[in-house]
Amino acid sequence: MKQHIHSISFFSLFLLLSLFLTGCRKAPDPITKTSFKLNTVVTITIYDSSDTSLLDHALNLCDYYENLFSRTRETSEIHQINQGLQKELSPETEELLNTALYYSRLSGGLFEPTIGPVSSLWDFHTEQPKVPDETLIQSRLPLIDAKKIRLSNHTITMEEGMMLDLGSISKGYIADSIKEYLIKQGVKSAVIDLGGNVLCIGNRPDGTPFQIGIRQPFAKANTAAAVLSISDQSVVTSGIYERCFEQDGIVYHHLLDPNTGYPCDNELASVTIISNHSVDGDALSTCCFLMGMEQGMSLINSIPDVHAIFITRDGELYYSEGFPD
Fold first, then answer.
1. Among 175, 199, 212, 295, which residue is least crowded by beta carbons within 10 Å?
2. How confident is the prediction for the chain on average, in pLDDT?
């Protein structure tokens, strides 16, 4: 799964600091809970309820979906499918996979839900990560092809050796599901932060938008390249600084090009997507990064109600058409 691992979430810290500094009138004390889930720091903050059971259930949803979507957890549905032990899809996995296949087509195959044979070779969590053997990478490239997936009657068929990896879209789906649950429970003001995937419910208690900081790539965790006013929307960033390591003077990051099996090498350092649904922001941030600035910006400008910030490796910020002031 696409992971944003920080000891303290920059977005959560920025939100709490902003609320403190702008609290002109007294608002109800928010309730919040943080836990390490989905291989990242997850924080749920609710501003208009004192029912802490809502936080517990929201975090439990992370566990529920991880047991469906995780590529590495041996008990998960995706892992069982990759091992050839299961073909029937749960409704949630089928929905997520169909969304991933849509974005694969939209990106011309750059967004690849079948990247698993190669992504499994790259371990960015070990204490001493290293570049996989080139021969092994090349031998697995033919196994990456979403067009070879067959879905019928809630079952999936893939060629032998193919592997699903939905990490570049699953956290967005999970964030949307948590938001849906909280809204059904009557919550009207909250922030869901899945380690950098930020999804807001409504506004702050005083009616003003939430202030979400966009991290400056490779800067200190609390350094903002931009600050966004967000109401009831999602903010998702994909960047080369999230999971990376250096070997022989070259920085390798987790955003893999399915055509080469290696980290995508272009002018971009990060792409941030502002959208109504986090699952779309999650997928589009990866799509646009892999497509590069020109093609990625063209894609975003063609999609209604979606905005983007592209940050280049030299620190320049570029905004999509019609970006709010």
1. 295
2. 90
